[in-house]
Every structure is written in C-alpha cells, then in structure tokens.
Amino acid sequence: MNLFSEVEELKGIGPKTAETLKKYGIRTVRDFFYNLPRDYENFEAPTTISEIQPGKVVIKGKIDKISTRRARKRNLSITEGVISDKTGAIKVVWFNQSYRKSQFSPEKEYYFTGNYELKNGRYSLISPSAALVSDIDTSAGLNPIYVAHGALKSHDFKRLVNASREKFAEIPDFLPTVKAGVRQKSLFEAHFPTSIKAVQAARDYLAYEELFELILAARLNKRENDKLKASGVPFELEKVKDFLAGLPFELTKAQKRAAWEIFQDMEKNTPMNRLLQGDVGSGKTMVAALAAYEVALSGHQVALLAPTAILATQHYENLKRTLEPFKIAVALLTGATKDKKSLKENIRAGKIDLVVGTHALLTDDTEFAKLGLVIIDEQHRFGVEQRQKLALKSPAGLAPHLLSMTATPIPRSLQLTIFGDLDVSVLNELPKGRQPVKTTILPEIEMREKLYPAILGTVGARNQVYWVCKAIEDNPRAETTSVKARASKLQQLFPKLEIAFLHGRMKPAEKDEIMARFAGGKIDILVSTTVIEVGVDVPNASLMVIENAESYGLAQIHQLRGRVGRGQVASSCYLLTTGDAAPSRRLRELEKSSDGFYLAEVDLKLRGPGEIYGALQHGALDLRIASLSDTKLISRAQKDVLEFLKNPENMVKYEELRRIIAKYQQITTLN
Question: Does domain 437-593 have CATH number 1.10.287.3510?
C-alpha cells in the first residue's frame, strides 16, 4: 500500500468527501490513518443521575422540555432541556446549537457525554454530545470520538475508518527501532479500541514515533549547519571594555555571560547559530549591540531584522545612540525610508556598518559588501525562507553568524528536543529599576467596583492602559467581547478619555500609526488583540487588562503583562475571568510568580507544547500525541536517533521517514 497516495483511493471516499478532507489537511492515505480520535467514550457503565459528580460524565436517559431562547447580551442562542433516568433528572444546556431542539424524541433513550459543571449559578450538563442508545454497540468497548471537519462529523469518520478496516493490516513498518508490526497494531488499536490499557500502549508508541521524527530532523539540521564556513571575528578585549565604560549603566551578570558566549562563538570559522532568550525588558538589545560592535570592528557588516517598522525604528534609535559615539555607522531601512536607492548604494559599498530594517532588508536589490552577522528579533515572526534569504546575502562561500532573539522563555526540554544541539543564551535577570507587575485575578462581575476606579486612577496620574481582547469581531458562537465592542463600551463609560483599538487585520501603516500615538501618550486606553505581545516600549503604560484570561497560556499572558512595568511607576495586571468556577492553577501561578522560565515549564506540563512552540516558531509543531514534558520518552528517542544516524544508508533506506521529517526540518532550523 502506498501511504502517500491520494486519500480518495480508500474505500468509501468519493470526490466530494475527499475535497472536504483535503481542506482540513487530510490529503493522503497516511494522513487519514493518522487522523486519530481526540477522545473515547465508554458506554458500558454510564453514570446514574443520582450518583453524578462534577466533571466528564456519560448519562443514559431520555430528554424533554427542550426550548431555545436568545441571550441579547451575548448574542447567543441557548437551548435547554431536562435529562432524566430512573434515579433523577438534571438540566442540560447547549450554546448556539438550536438544532438540538428538534433532534430528540421524548420516547427514545440517548447517551449524553459532556461536562457536568457549575454555570451561571447552577449545575448543568454543558453542550454534551448525544447518540441514540439503539445505535451504539456496547460490546465494542470504547467508542472513538473524532474532531469534526466541516460537514464530516465524528460518526462520519467512524464510518470511513470502518470501511478501511482491512487496510490496516497492509500498513508497513516505519521506524527501525521498534519491533515489526508495532506501528500497524498501534494505529489499529487507536481507531478500534478494545481497552483503555491497549489504547494507552498504542498512544505511547505513536508519541515515541513523533519524537523520533522531530529529534532526527533537528540532528540533521545541526549536521548541515556544521558543514558551513564563516569569517571568524576576533575578540577585542580592550575596545569592549571601553564600550562598556561608556554606558550609563552596568550590565547584569546574565548579559555579561550571554555576550561572552556570543564572542566565543563568533571567533570560530563555523557560523554561530545562537538563540538569545529573555523576558521582555531583560536587555537583549544591549547584548545584540555588543555583538554588532565586535563585528563592525572586524570590518564586517551587521543586519538586524525586526517584524514591524515601529519596532525597527525603536531598535534603530537605541542602537544609533549607543554605537555612533564609537564611529559605527547605523542606518534604518523600512518601506517608509526615503531615498532607498542612495542608502542601498552605501550598504553595497560597505559604508554602513549596521542596517536595522523590516522585510525591506530581504529585497533582491539590498546587497551587502561583507555581511558578517544577522540578528533577528522575535525570529518566530519570520519564515525559514525569509531567514535564509537574508543569510545568503553574505560573501560567496561564507555564511554569516546568526543571533536570534525571543522574549518567549523556552523550557530546556523543548530546546533540546526541537533544536537538538542549538546554542542558547538565557537572560534570567532584569536590569535595576525595573518595576514589578502586581497581578490580580478578577471576576468580570467585579469590574465596575474594582477595575474601573483603577483605570481612572491610572489615567489621572497621566499613565496609560492596555486592554487585551480575544476576538476582533463579534461572534454569536463565542462568549467573548470583541476588540471593537469593548472599545465602544469603554468609550461610553469614559467619554472624556482617548480610546483606540488595534488588531492584526489592520494595514501595517495603520497599526504603526496607532502604536506611535499610544507611545506618544496621545491614547489613554488601547484595546487590542495579542498583536501587542511584541511591540514598542511604552514606559508610561502601567495597567494591563487581559479579558477571558483562562483562554490564554501562561507563557502568552506573561509576555503580554511584560508590556507594562517598563517605567518608574509600579504597574498592575488584571486577569479577567468569566463564570463561577474557581480560577485555574495556571492563573494562580501567574499571581504568585513573575519568573518567565518557571512559568514556561509549568505551561509545558499543563498545556503541552502547542502554545509555547506556536509563539516560538513560524509554523505549527502539530504534535498529535507526544508531550515534550515526557523526559523519559524524549531520552529514549534521542538515544535511538543517534544510533540510527550511525548508518548513513538509513536515510536512503527509510523513504517514508525521510519524507515525513522534511516538514520538521523546515521548522527546526534557525539558519
């Protein structure tokens, strides 16, 4: 069987179904087999209503008294009913699923699977799935539940998988490090489960498979990078001492350590590939300035790539102020730069030592005389091809040294797994004078009493406010207030204040204009999506409000609250929550800790790698099962990868593996 054949080659999948599957990334036979169930239901022992406890439950019963109403405040449809069995009755509620009203017959029994929880002051079964008892074969054991894709619901996937049941026996082995047949058996058990124990064993293998692929890709990238050559940059001790003596402040120990690691890397004739990570405000730009100074002294040029024009401008102004006293020529190149032709001629002639810019640095007519160092700020904002395009502007046959910077703290286990032997420098100290940010969890119903006075006090003291929302536009299916709606409500509440909103769909020039006004103190409250997560320094901003805080990961909230506390004023961050449930452990951790690396480790354990990795790299890690907090499985996979690489013929022999890791190689390379 060819696993890379088009998905419509499988039984029961016609052109229309194939079109829907491909829309959601299921293009090949392999994609289909690896579209694993998201969960499993056990209908053999449903919970009786008299024994029900909060949490996930399966109830077998009848339903009646179903009605649908509109909630004007949230623009929601709410469908409610009563589920009963011989032992009692409970309320059930669905949001924006009005079709439920006509779905059920009062005489028939159904299995209802969902969470029994406190909502709006009462316990209810919230938005459960439903299946006719007569349609379920309980002798089959566990019932797999698939993620719905468009018109294809979970039961459609079960039907399609069942039609291909015999094909599972044809699935070939994949990895050389496991016994024959383990892969085929694991995929079969995942789709046709017989017991929780068997499903767990299947998922353990599939998790190992994913980690093996990811680690192998990282090792191959490291191997390729080690083949490149670069110009060594000699370390000028006395001149670096003069540079540091001219600064109006002393570097932190972490900054000194990171700079020394970079200097040592750049002395070598292989290109540096280092990631500099540290919280917002930890001094990454000053470390980058030191690296740029060393490279400029050696007669080479430096390019610093930033994701936005306003951030590039901020870097340019800071670096110009720091470096020009030492006769280092600094220039800014963005889409708005006037007389680009003359500037590019000077860059080509080697008259500019450091060029700070946006995507304008990547154009074909931007050429360097002797590019020796590329610095990429918030490198996850740039795709692999963009980073490589800038690297190719170095002299023929030589690669520039590469320093990538990120304000997202990355757990050590994540570093080792994704990037193999990537060199990492960590800034885990904040400069003197940095104000701590007091974080408070606040239910939405207490906003008027506690938050609004704090806003008035902040603005009255001539400071500014960030307010973060989840959505750009109102969505009737979501219980969230959009950026536009929140800005409008705040303007009604505070008519004398200057309020503006910002989101990712705006044109770059429009976003830059709003951020420039906010940075200039002309906006009191800026309502925004997480687009402000990486942005300009606004020392005057001292209050951050994050709405629907439960929907964000720890790392992202920590990054957002780093936007305040950058001046001399004590700052605050309010995490707004909805509903009656107690705040989660994630939010409690944010209240008690401001250590980004500690929070990143906690987030990895609680939520998995998705959010951290999504913030770290352009692209999706898309691990289906593996957890990057499973250090034992990671260790096993790393050991097996090293053994696999001892035989050069393996990458030829295992063709499927080679094709699959290609996507990971695009993600795990920093050069």
Answer: no
